[in-house]
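Q: For a teaching session next week I want to show students how multiple molecules come together into a single three-dimensional assembly. I've collected the sequence lines for a complex. Could you give me the predicted structure tokens for the whole thing so I can convert them for display?
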Amino acid sequence: MILELVDILIQPGKQAEFDQAIQHGIQTYIAPSKGFIGYRINKCIETPERYVLMNYWETLENHTVDFRGSPAFTQWRGVVGPFFARPPIVEHFTIFATKNA
Amino acid sequence: MILELVDILIQPGKQAEFDQAIQHGIQTYIAPSKGFIGYRINKCIETPERYVLMNYWETLENHTVDFRGSPAFTQWRGVVGPFFARPPIVEHFTIFATKNA
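A: Of course. Below is the structure for the complete assembly, covering every listed component.
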């Protein structure tokens, strides 16, 4: 299992609209993708325009090749992209250790 | 439940030592703290010096007041701090939506 960590900064005052858009976008365009396991959307307390999206995939290539190479990727960006204050910062992680989380 | 997200960059080539230190530090100094729920340590694929630590707390104050105001915070930093390439970036989050993660 691979974690895709997406660090998002949106335009000020757009939180309520973005809350809807990101959920709609994930459910419609990401969740049906090959190898997608699940997600978590986190809203920052100190920086209200910051969201951290955690997407879990079976393999790295399920995200970088299968999803990013599909029309769904463009559609997803069409839904959430208009809210971004800068391009999202995306890197992938292996889960090294976990307890009750 | 509150997520404390810790973005860590360590010195190159120190991964094996840090893998041990961070687990020891969490289990010894953070896990016994009031309101601590659990953790996940993630190791970055693209940037091998990057670690993202997710700590889950009952309340924000359990981290910012109870833990940071305790001797355990200084002890924790004593274990992991020597590996840091720069101060860790820490912010807190509410969990807005989650599915299979």
